[in-house]
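REVIEWER CHECKLIST
Item 1: Sequence provided? yes
Item 2: Single chain? yes
Item 3: Sequence as submitted:
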Amino acid sequence: MGEPVTVVETPSSRPGYVRFETNRSFTGMGHESYRLGDEIHRDRPADVIAKQLFETGQVDEVHVYAQSITVKLADGADSAGLKALLEDLYIYYRPGVEVPTPESFATDG
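Item 4: Structure as written out by the authors:
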């Protein structure tokens, strides 16, 4: 369940950077920038994107502006798998994961 994000990966004119254009706006008109090692305290869409990209070990910096995500790759890293990570951002139920039913949310009382 959930809807995949459409992502187009394009190289940047700057070596070591890659850009992802999506069909979703993650920040509205605001810019969000993150660096590896920064504490990310919130769980807004741009925060979640940055956290997940950093967890790959392939990324040093993330900039999110509306539907554009620019990534500075770690030294020696490539962008393999990053596009798929973004495409699956809103896929919640995967094969083998039980989809909740209305009864699973019912409480006694």
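Item 5: Key structural point noted by reviewer: The beta strands are 7-11, 17-22, 31-35, 59-65, 68-73.
Item 6: Recommendation: ____
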